[in-house]
Amino acid sequence: MRGGNLKVLVVYDITDDSLRLKVAEILKDLGLFRIQKSAFIGEMTSQERENMEEILRRQNLGPSDRIDVFPICDRDLKMHSQIGRGKFGRGPP
Amino acid sequence: MRGGNLKVLVVYDITDDSLRLKVAEILKDLGLFRIQKSAFIGEMTSQERENMEEILRRQNLGPSDRIDVFPICDRDLKMHSQIGRGKFGRGPP
Questions:
Q1: Residue B92 falls within a domain, yes or no?
Q2: What is the mean pLDDT of residues A62-87?
Q3: Residue B71's domain is classified under what CATH number?
Q4: Residue A70: its H or E element
Q5: Has residue A88 been placed in a domain?
Q6: Where does Mg(2+) bind (chains A, B)?
Q7: Mean pLDDT of all residues in B65-90
């Protein structure tokens, strides 16, 4: 979360409960904000993004598991909509 | 999915099974592609996006439910990463 202005959205679909919790912990530890049970958003440098993806790739994902990392520019983030009042954590968006 | 070049990612966190399934059906019917159990992506005009959000707002979401709609420009979509081999449906990304 230091420097850089690359915002990334990380969304995952992981079947195993303990692995799913582990991935959530990894993302929290990397300074991302939780916006949904399985979605985090954060700001990081390209190098930090690479490191994060390397850590995520090392996890023992099942055959139907998937993690998607989307960079989102500020312009797009401004056009984000939230429907429903569910709230996780703090911070953007 | 006709015209326009606004790509949107829709990610949701809905507790009730039947409502979650209903939202998935709505998004499929609107022509979006499923990329995860609770994430769809599609291309639509601004008007189609407004209509979609209006339909989603009419659903009886619970207090902790939340649907996030992120426009994603082509430049950002190109920098998208997928980790894991889980695959839903067809189409981008």
A1: no
A2: 93
A3: 3.30.70.240
A4: strand A66-71
A5: no
A6: 13
A7: 89
